[in-house]
Structure formats: C-alpha cells, structure tokens
Amino acid sequence: MCPDCEDFARTVLLLGQLALYADVAGADLDFVEAVSPSLAVSLPEPPPGMFPDGDDDGGPASAGDC
After folding, report:
1. What are the DSSP calls for the chain, one per residue?
2. Could you give the CA distance from residue 33 to residue 53 in angstroms, rounded to a whole number?
3. pLDDT greater than 70 at residue 60
4. Alpha-carbon span 46 to 51, nearest angstrom
5. d(Cα 18, Cα 38) in Å, to the nearest integer?
6. How many CB atoms lie within 10 A of CB 49?
7. Which residue from 4, 12, 18, 25 puts its CA 20 to 30 A from 51's CA?
8. By C-alpha distance, which of 37, 2, 41, 45 is closest to 18?
9. What b-and-e string marks burial along 35-47, b requiring 16 or more CB atoms within 10 Å of the CB?
C-alpha cells in the first residue's frame, strides 16, 4: 500500500474507532470531543484513484469554503 493510502486508511480507521468508543457506556466524552476535531482535520486528501471518477458530489473543496 502506498504511504498516502496507508495514512488515509489509518486516519479513517481511528475516526471510526473513536465513533464506536463514543457510544460505549461510560465513555469519556470530553476525550472524544477533544480528540475528534484534531483527528478529522489531520485526515489527508484521499490519494488519487481511491474513489472512482465522478464520485465528487460538488460540495465545497474544503471546510473553509462553506
């Protein structure tokens, strides 16, 4: 797996695990609230070819374009 693909996959996996942890009884929601924005911002651009052509929904190019 290329390094960019590996970084993207690892970050998506961590975001998913954090979401699952947030639903566990007794989860530290302060931790979830502190870590999730940083993890989401660190999500790299998907490597070229990760998604088929035409999957762009026409949304903003970045969060700052909203």
Report:
1. --HHHHHHHHHHHHHHHHHHHHTSTT--HHHHHHHHHHHHHTPPPPPTTSS-TT---S--SSGGG-
2. 34
3. no
4. 8
5. 12
6. 9
7. 18
8. 37
9. eeeeeeeeeeeeb
Q: Which two tokens stand for residue 6?
A: 């590996």
Q: Say which DSSP state 63 is in.
A: G
Please say whether the beta carbons of 40 and 8 come within 8 A. no
Please report the pLDDT score of residue 46 as a whole number. Answer: 74
Look-up: residue for tokens 């931790």? 31
8 A C-beta contact, residue 63 and residue 43? no
DSSP type of residue 64: G
pLDDT band at 65 (very low <50, low <70, confident <90, very high): very low
